[in-house]
Design a protein that fits this description.
Chain B: InterPro entries: PhnH-like_sp, Phosphonate_metab_PhnH. Chain B: GO terms for molecular function: lyase activity. Chain B: It comes from Paralimibaculum aggregatum. The complex is a heterodimer of chains A (about 300) and B (about 200). Chain A is of the alpha/beta class and about 300 residues long. Chain A contains 7 helices and 12 strands. Chain A has 2 domains: about 170 residues, Bacterial phosphonate metabolism protein PhnH (Rossmann fold); about 50 residues, no CATH class. In chain A, the strands form 3 sheets. Chain A has a 7-stranded mixed beta sheet with strand order 1-9-8-5-4-2-3. Classes of the chains: A alpha/beta (about 300), B alpha/beta (about 200). The interface between A and B is large, with 51 and 41 residues.
Chain lengths: ~300, ~200
Amino acid sequence: MSGHENASGAAGAEAYNFAYLDEQTKRMIRRAILKAVAIPGYQVPFASREMPMPYGWGTGGVQVTAACLTAEDRLKVIDQGADDTTNAVSIRKFFERTAGVKTTEETEQATIIQTRHRIPEAPLAEGQIMVFQVPIPEPLRFLEPRETETRKMHALEEYGLMHVKLYEDISVHGHIATTYAYPVLVEGRYVMDPSPIPKFDNPKLDDSPALMLFGAGREQRIYALPPHTRVQSLDFEDHPFDRGHWDEDCALCGDAGSYLDEVITDDAGGRIFVCSDTAHCRARRQAGHAGAASAPYEEAGA
Amino acid sequence: MRGETATAAPAAGDALSGGFADPARDGAAAFRAVLSAMAHPGRIERLAGAAPPAGISPAAGALMLALADAETPVWLPERLAGGPVAEWLRFHTNAPAAAGRSAAAFALGRWEELVPLADYPAGCPSYPDRSATLVVDLPALEGGPALTLSGPGLAAPARFAPMLPAEAAAALAENAARFPLGVDVCFAAADRVAALPRSTRLEG
C-alpha cells in the first residue's frame, strides 16, 4: 500500500503521499465531510491530525482541503482577503509541493478556495468549494463552556441564550455589537458559527451556489453548508441584521461596495481604507478604476 | 482521474484485482464525485476506477474503496455475504462485516435487500452523524417513478427518477422526516452515482 501511495506523489514532494495526508486519514475526514453535508450546520467530530504547522494557522482548513483536492483542482488561498500574506503563501506552497496542484489568485479561476476569515468579493459559482479555517466552531462556547451542555442545546434547539446575548448587546450598546463570527441559523435548525468572517460577508453564505466546508483542527470539528442552503443571520424584528458600511471608498480602486481594511500611513493620524480582497482590488485597478490615493496602475516588475 | 483508469474486470474468484490503480488520486476523484452527489441531491455523477466482482456495480465498488476501511463495519445482504464481493471488499478495504444492520456504517445491496431503512443507525439527537450510509444498487438512475426533491443543495425543486419501486418514495420521505436523524442514501448504477442525504425533502 505504501509503495502505491508514494508513487502517486510523483508530481509533488516525492516522499509524501498525494496531498500530504495518508489515505486512511483522508477517508476518515471524507466520511465526516459527507455527514456534515447531509446535516447542514451540525458540527461533526473528527480525529484531527497533527499538521506541519501550529494550531491557529489553519490546520482544520488544511486537512479539509487535503481531503478534497484532486490533481485537476486549481487552489486559491486567502488570509483576511489577501493572497500574499504569510499564512496564505505557505499553505498555497504546501499544496503546490505535496499535491502538485495548480494555484491561482483569481477567485473565478479557483475550484477550491481555502480562506481565513473572508469570503471573496467576486460572486462564487456552482462547483466551487470554499474551505474555511475555524478557530472555535461552537457558537455557544463563550456562553456555555461545557461541551456536554452545548451538545444538548443543539439537540434540543435550545438557542435562547444566544438571543439573550444579542439582546444584551442592544441593551448595552444600543445595537448588536457583534461584528465578526456573527451567528447564523442554518435551514431553520442549527445555529452555526460562520468562522470569524466579518458580518459583512454573512449575506454571501445564504443561498450560495458554492459548497462551503468548515474545518476546526484544534477543536476537531467539521461542518458544512451545501449549495443553496438557507442561512439567516440572527436578529430581532426591531433590530434587523445590518452588514455594516463605510463612509469611505477604497483608496486604491475606488470601490464603494467592498470590505475595507484601515491602513495607518503616518505618525500624524493619517490613514486610508483599502479593499481587504487583494485580488478584487487588483482586478479593478487593472480595469482602470482608481481611488483617492492611487498611482496609475502598473504590473508588478514593469 | 474520473474514468481514465479502466481496470480490467477480475476473473471469477479473483479478489485481488479490480481495486484503484492509484489509490490516492482515484480515491480523491471518487470522493469528489460522491461529495458533489451529496451536495446536489439527485444529480448524477460519474464514479469509476473500480472493477468489483459481479454482484455490485462499479460505482458502488468505487464508493466503498474510497470511503470504507477498518473503522467502518459494512452490512451485506445474504446474496453478497460470504461471496466474491465480500471477499473483494475485505481484501481492498479491510472493512469488517457488520454484526447486524444496527451496527453498520455502510450497507450495500439492492433496495429490496436493504429495506426497512429504520433498521440502520440513524444517529442520536446529540450526535446525528453517527448514522449509516446506504449504497443502493439500481438497474438505472433514470426512467423510474419521478420524485420531486427540495432542500439544501437545490436552488429549485428538482426531479429525480431512479429505478426504485413505487413504495420507496414513502420510505425515503419517512427518513427525511426524522431530520436531523436518519440515514443517507447513495444510489449506484453502472459507473454512475446519485445521492439523497436525509436533509432532502420529497414531494409528490
